[in-house]
Amino acid sequence: MMKSFTITKRQEEHITILEINGELDAHTAFKLEQQFKNLIEIEAYHIIVNCSNLQYIASAGLGVFMAYIEDIRNLGGDIKLSDMTGDVYHVFDLLGFPSLYDIHKNESEALSSYKNQK
């Protein structure tokens, strides 16, 4: 059975917000990978991934974040994460992601952190 996973993309000034919904695992990770590739192609390097509707993340999903964070930072951007549920944050925390990623309680806090970087 195909897992449910969707990505909604929207813009807030020069920042791209990806709302990820459902389960991010080996069967769905390619969708997020494609989004990151597309954003790099159009030189959209300021990204927020809103995880409020992310129900589950597997190692394959975490791998997508790891694969693109360095590239995007080297291009002068960042991938900021927001709105994680306790369970999803716990997975990120176990792997030490809070020291690697800019994780915010909510999207408006993540937006502010970009605006304060200018």
What do these coordinates show?
The protein has a single domain (5-115), classed as STAS domain (Transcription Regulator spoIIAA). The protein is α/β, with parallel strands linked by helices and 118 residues long. Strands 1-2-3-4-5 form a five-stranded mixed beta sheet, with helices on both faces. Helix content is 43%, strand content 32%. It has helices spanning 29-41, 59-74, 86-94, 97-100, 107-115, and strands spanning 5-12, 15-24, 46-57, 78-82, 102-104. The mean pLDDT is 94.
Task: Spell out the blueprint of helices and strands.
Elements: E1 5-12, E2 15-24, H1 29-41, E3 46-57, H2 59-74, E4 78-82, H3 86-94, H4 97-100, E5 102-104, H5 107-115
Parallel strand pairs: 2-3, 3-4, 4-5
Antiparallel strand pairs: 1-2
Helix pairs in contact: 1-2
Give me a quick take on this structure.
With 118 residues, this protein is of the alpha/beta class. The chain has helices spanning 29-41, 59-74, 86-94, 97-100, 107-115, and strands at residues 5-12, 15-24, 46-57, 78-82, 102-104. The chain has a single domain (5-115), classed as STAS domain (Transcription Regulator spoIIAA, 2-Layer Sandwich).
CATH-assigned fold name: Transcription Regulator spoIIAA
> Tally of extended strands?
5
Overall geometry comes to globular
Task: Calculate the mean pLDDT score and round it.
Answer: 94
Report the span from N to C terminus. 45 Å
Task: Give me some keywords for this one.
five-stranded mixed sheet, single chain, 118 residues, Transcription Regulator spoIIAA, alpha/beta
